[in-house]
Amino acid sequence: MSFTPKIAIIGAGPGGLTLATLLQRNQIPYTIYELESGPDARNQGGTLDLHQNSGQLALREAGLIEEFRDKARPEGEALKIVSPEGEVLWNENSHGGPDRPAESADRPEIDRVVLRDILLNSLNPDSICWNKKLQRIEPGADNTHDLYFADNCVEKSFDIVVGADGAWSKVRPLLTDEKPYYCGISAIELWALDVETRYPWLSEYVGAGSCFMFDEGRALFSQRNGNGSIRSYACVRQGEGWAQDCGIDWTKPETARRELVERYFGDCAEDLKRVILESRDELILRALYVLPIGITWPSHPGVTLLGDAAHLMTVFAGVGVNVAMHDALDLANAIVAWKKSGARRSGLADAIKGYETRMLERGEENAQHSWKNMGMSFSKGGGEKMVEMLKGFGVRG
């Protein structure tokens, strides 16, 4: 007789929701436990691009690719690169959008909240338990695990617990003692809302997609979102306690933006300063953390990870969500293949181990790429290096 596993997915981010969607599509039961109180509990972040061979592939397998296509923004692929002195080094807005070879084309942008809604709406709402903050996991009988939550609820006897719970995963400690560490970069996230009406200059300057400036020890990234806003990230290479120790009073955003410009971007072009100063609607401090590149662990029956919980990397390759969704697809395929092979309990651990081997290799490759991009982004002449790399790929700017 075939065995039906009891599966817990910890976290309702893109990776966890993608896994749930794929399991549901294959009639494999699961339960998602999410610490947020509901789908609208917090802002879900900015925009991201989904790649054909990872994020889009997972959506295609989940039967959601057409809905994604309907809501994605191909024009958001347009890239603009500016030097610290204000020279426009690259501008894909100038010829109607990006013109890239097939292998690096078709990566339309989509707001994170829109992607999350696509995935959430595909799921049985009864399969998601909101406001469930996981406190710890303890071994149960026969390689199962019990989940203990902050509300004193205990859910017992899960055959598979999937940690899709991000950088500070509560599941990861069962597999490894490794913890995220500060990568040396801090970012000030700045919002400008309703830019077409309220900030027309900023809207025109950034363009339809992203605008980047790279320099030694600093960078400025701006991205257009689908809700009529632009989010900019003024980034500096500083120590982990920089935001608290630098003397800028972040509780006073107007003066904080001016001091940020004066101290760290004062010799940049006026247009770049203006990007920071015109982004007046929100200010959020972000210190960036990573897991060690090449992190591994001995496979542990009944527990595994995906996405940032498994291989947290820097944001400078723009692949984090794509890798998480690829992980989810790979794990779902492993479970489905195990089920089709007869679904004997003894084979489940081998299926998870095979998935982890592939997932950890994928994570290491992408983390190395992201770390390399971070080095280029915070180096003198980083913009020129990026342009040469794009030209090497056969891209026209």
Automatic annotation (TrEMBL):
Fetch the InterPro entries from UniProt. Answer: FAD-bd (IPR002938), FAD/NAD-bd_sf (IPR036188)
MF annotations from Gene Ontology: FAD binding; monooxygenase activity
Q: Organism source for this protein? A: Glutinoglossum americanum
All copies of domain FAD-binding, residue ranges: 7-349
Question: Superkingdom, according to UniProt?
Answer: Eukaryota
**Keyword line:** FAD, Flavoprotein, Monooxygenase, Oxidoreductase
Stored Pfam families: FAD_binding_3 (PF01494)
Q: What protein am I looking at?
A: FAD-binding domain-containing protein
